Every structure is written in structure tokens, then in C-alpha cells.
Amino acid sequence: MNLMPRRSAVLIVGAGPTGLTLAIRLRQLGVDCLVIDKLAEPAPWSRALGLHARTLEIFHALDVLEAVRQLSNVQTSVTVHNDEGVLLTLDLTSLEAPFPSLLICPQGDVEQVLTERFEALGGRVWRDVSLQSFIQHGDSVVANLLVEGNIHRLDCTLLVGCDGAHSRVREQLGISFDGVTEKDHFLIADLDINWSLSSSSSHGFLLSAGSMIALPMTDCWRLVINQAPSDDTESDVTLAPFRQRLTAAFGECPPLGAPRWLTRFTIHRRLASRYRQNRVLLAGDACHIQSPLGAQGMNTGIGDAFNLAWKLALFLNGMGGGRLLDSYERERRPVARAMLYSVDMLSRSSFSRNRLVRAGRDWVLKFMNGRPSIGKRLLRRASQLDINYRETDLVGSGSAGWPAGKAGPEPGDRMPDARLSSGNDVLHLIDLLRDPRHYLLIQLDEEPDSQQLVTAYALADRVPVEFGQWVRTLVVAGSTPAKSLRELEEFDVSLLTDQHSEFRQRYGAGAGLWLMRPDGHLAFRASLADADQLLDWLRDFRRR
Fold this sequence. Notes:
alpha/beta; FAD/NAD(P)-binding domain
């Protein structure tokens, strides 16, 4: 193999979706990083399949979405059945998001696409390389890696453990991984099935005989069934229990092809007590593991990486300090804790054999089926579109007061997409995430008064000069920009127009200041009267 470098700004341990997302984002941010994985080849099978709407936004930012989509089965609905028929149908296309669907794509295929993108950006995954130990110093980490039977010393500024549930990094840090192992066992079968179920919908069968999940992949179906603790959980897995469950669901077992994969697994629910110790951090399954029901694990890990990457980049550029790195745990650990709770409740109710629990569950699902608004809220939560960081000190607002009645996200919220115009070109806010930096959006009235114009020009002059290395300034005008705004072209800003009224619909009418983070969440919002407080906030952020 080629000689491995002796130095890297960031060492990423683990080449799964979390580690590769982090690596791509760091490369987009101009940060040197090195990825190692102890496996000589990627694992041929994976339990993780589902990619939710928020993850699709992240993949759009990484410029891998179309490649992943080509390897995926697009899901437009989720259907839940019981012994008597359909309980609930959720329309995924009702999501107010740029990509309102669920993609079913095996983790191995996701990793392949991410690896190719990382390599296209000049990176490389070093396989069959394992972390043996590391030592932290005041301004660096020294990692000892096992490479072809020899110890290779690598110096890095930061180390991130994306090395899964049995994380070597977490183990060496001595960070606890508290939680429980569920009593039930589960079986997976990937195989062809000759039946009439729609392949554009995922199906859950909550039966008195036990539950079954049916997920349509591009070339076969995946079945997941639960086993009671009293069932035989030691013998080799066969198709017999799947045939029994299919017969319970349909009255007879449809024709089945030869299984491509059969396996048994148990559910663990665990959460790391800390995400960071000095210059070493954890992400993905190294932090949290849970039931695969709801397809939250891989998506949450990818979200961890997307939150962390820009913070590492700014830290390496001398900004933010330890408080910026601390914000990663403060923002993402509550997300994982809430996810573990909701997935645990979903898993317990879905796989319960208690008659009263099942009756109550079925009643709730039927109630939801007649009330689409409840289903939409459930979908947004499952799709991770509603994740916010409102309670952290990394977001803020001006003190003069937000304009009364003005809509829009709160500090810490994900900023909704909106279509804007730049000359004859159309720009979506989500497209800005492909060039990761902070974006200041100066929203003006349809006919801005003189005070608004003065403020806009002052910010157009000040922000690029003082913060231009990491903040880009955009002026969002009405559908027909005032002639007095044309001179903004002389500054290092972009003038956009809200010709389709989408920005006004989602961010409210009237003027305002919006500062979007590189992960698409709102860092700061203020009225134009609070422009000085915005500048103070940016200076304070830079000093931290």
C-alpha cells in the first residue's frame, strides 16, 4: 500500500455513513482529514436501509443525493396493518420539504457512494487499518495505528470516533455506554416475494401472532419479524418462522424466492454519557444505538456528522474554542436521547403481545388515520425535519424585539427552503448548503424605506470586510427590487428577489435579519434595528 501520512488535521476512525459524511463535509470546508477502517472490505450486508427527508437534504449538500437515489427504492407512503386490515396510511409526499420521500437504500450502497464522493474530493479511505491507542497532548492527539502488522504513529489535531457500537475510541476514553438489551429477538430475511403489495410503500403488520415489517428494496423485499424469548433463538435461521408470519397476515404464504440473507439480532438501547473529551469526539453509533424500527440510527449519525464538521473547521481556524466543540454535545445528545425514547416507545408498542396494549395501539392508529394533520406532525418528527437547537447558547436573537406577528423559524430551528431569483437564475436556500459557510440574509420590505436601505448598505459594507472569510451576505428584496438597491452590486454581496413569494410565506412579511449556519439551522435572527447586535454576536462568536 502507499505510505500513510504521518500527520492529518482530523483523524476519523470508521468509514461508515457517519464517518464518511464527516470526511466529505470537512473536505468541502477545506480541512485535511484521514479516514481509517479496521475492515479490509465493506460489510456485504447491513440492517440500516431508510434515508429520511432531512438526510436527503444533507446528501444534497454533499452532492451525493442523485447517486444515492439511483440505487434506492423511493417510498411515497407507509402503511400499517393489523389482523383486520389497514390501520393507518401516511403520505410521505405531504411533507413540506425539498425531498418529501423516504429512500430505501442499503447502508453498503450508501457507503459506496459516499466513498466515491470523498475520493473525488481528494480523500482516501485507509482500510485494514485499526486504532490501537491514542494519547492526547495540549494541542494534538497522537494515534497508534496497526498497519500491515506494524504500528504507525499519526499526529492529528482532532480525532473523531465513528467506529460503531463497539467503539474502540469510546472504550479508551472510558466513556460509559449506558442502556439495556431488549428480551425479544428479531429475524431478517432478504428475498424475492411474489405478492401484490405496493413497492412504493413500506408496510407494517401488527398481528396477534407477532409483528412483521416489509420493506421493498430495489431488487427484493426485506422482512423483519420478532421472536418471543420463549422461541428457539439458538438454531440456525430458516424461512419457517417467516412463512408462519406471512400466513398469519395473508391467510396463506405467498411464493418466496431463495433467501439472499438470513440473520438474527437483538435490540440494544444505549447512549454515551459524553460526546467529547478534550480533542477526541464521538459520533454516530459510537454515541447511540437503538431499535432499527423507524430507521433513525443511520440518519441520526449522519446528522451528528453534519452538525460537527463545520464546528471542527472553524475551531481549526482559531475560532470558537472549546465552547464551540462543547456545543456539539449540547446540541446533538438531546436529539439522540429524544430519538431513543421515541423509538423505544414505537418498538415496544409495535412488538407487544399484550392484548390490551395492542388494542390501545390500534385505536390510536385508527384515530390518527382520520386526522391527516396528526400524521403530518408524526412524519415531520420521524423525518428529522423538526430537530432544533433552541436551548443552546450557540444561537440567539436581537433584544429590540422580533416584529410583532412576523413568521419564520426561531433561533436553532432548521431553516425551511425557499425559491429565490438571482437575475434569470433560480436559487434555492438549500443550495447554499453546498458551499458551507454562514449566510446572512438581509430581508427587506417590498418597498424598503430609507432606514432599511441605510441598514442594508451598512451591513453590505461591514460584514464582508470584517467576517467575509466565513460569512456571505445576501440581500433578499421583494419581487421587484427598488432601483436604489442596484448599487449593492458594488459590494461583495448578492441581491436576490422573492419573485415567487416563497421566502415571504416561510419567513414572514416585513424586514428582518437571518443568519444561517453551515448546517442549515438558524444561528441568529433580529430586526433591522438590531443590526449592531448582530455584528456584536458575530464578533463574540469569533472570539470564543
